[in-house]
Amino acid sequence: MAVVLVTGLVVGAGEWSGVAPPAGEARGVLVAAGAVALLGLVDDVWRLRRRVLAAGTAVAAACVVPYGETGVGTGLLAVAWVVAVVFGLRGLDHVDGLAGAAGVVAAFGVAACGAVEVMDGIAGLLSVLAAALTGFLLHNWHPARVALGACGSMSAGFVIAVGAVYARAGSGVGESAGVLFALTAVAAADAVLVLGTRRLAGRAVFRGGPDHLAHRLRRLGLTAPGAVLLLGTGALSAMLVGVLAHAGRIGSGALWRVVGGGLVMVFALARVPVYGPRHSVSAQVRAPLRVRSG
User: Fold this and answer.
1) Closest-CA residue to 65 (of 137, 163, 152)
2) Beta bridge pairs of residue 291
3) H/E stretch holding 93
4) Which of 121, 130, 144, 154 could make an S-S bridge to 96, C-beta 3.0–4.6 Å?
């Protein structure tokens, strides 16, 4: 809730005082993100069904996607992508520091893309969100004293995803897909890994378990902070490629190398055994690591 409130208050105060440029399209994104944050808060308290969260997020995204620039078909694809990023970042909140680190990197990257397009409102909003997540990360690093929860992770993921859609609106679909993946590489790779391995194992897709990226890295011998640093470094590298490609500084080939690297990592970590009877889950993956499953 602190991340949500601080982001909204700072952006609003900056526009009201004239210190910051007019929010413009960022106002609608903030309102929709507030609705998603409220939905996440209800989930934190009462645990809603995942399909309810997905439907609510999709409705909020559908209200702010710029169909005039994307077209209806691409706009609907953008809505689906926003929902995927929201749940991807929410899924990263299973280990101390990972959701915060991935969120900071993605928010800074989208802010840079917004600045390249001279979208002052979007660039300002994402910069404030990045700063808020940086402050949060100081309290979320291992051992964490607070977590984002559904309220913080869903709203942050929503702002990041919709901001990226605005920055790429009107660009080619293929290259845009590569840029969007690069900006949110860790969340996207984690979502692909979890959904794919759960389906192949015959498990319910929305059933939580110790099968995320950090869980598997821990089984390979990394410490919890070490896993976060490794994934954070990967997220930063991919984000820089995405920003440079968006700005036209490098070719699209670099984007596909990022996508290929992400898929290689997913395939490699998918081979790490994590499933089994519930009573056989090692205590090594639980309390001492401060790793949560979800």
Assistant:
1) 163
2) 95
3) none
4) 144
Q: Which ranges constitute the DSSP H helices of the chain? A: 2-17, 26-46, 50-62, 67-70, 72-91, 98-116, 120-140, 149-168, 173-183, 185-200, 213-219, 224-246, 253-270
For the chain, give the number of residues. 294
pLDDT at 281: 38
What lies within 8 Å, CB to CB, of 139 at 6+ separation is: 145, 146
pLDDT surpassing 80 at residue 289: no
Q: What is the dihedral of CA 68, 70, 76, 77, to 10 degrees?
A: -170
Give 107-142 pLDDT, tens digit per residue.
999 999 999 999 999 999 999 999 999 999 999 998
Angle value at C-alpha 185, between 90 and 192, nearest 5 degrees: 65
How many Å apart are CA 190 and CA 195, to the nearest integer?
Answer: 8
Cis peptide before 21 (omega within 30 of 0): no
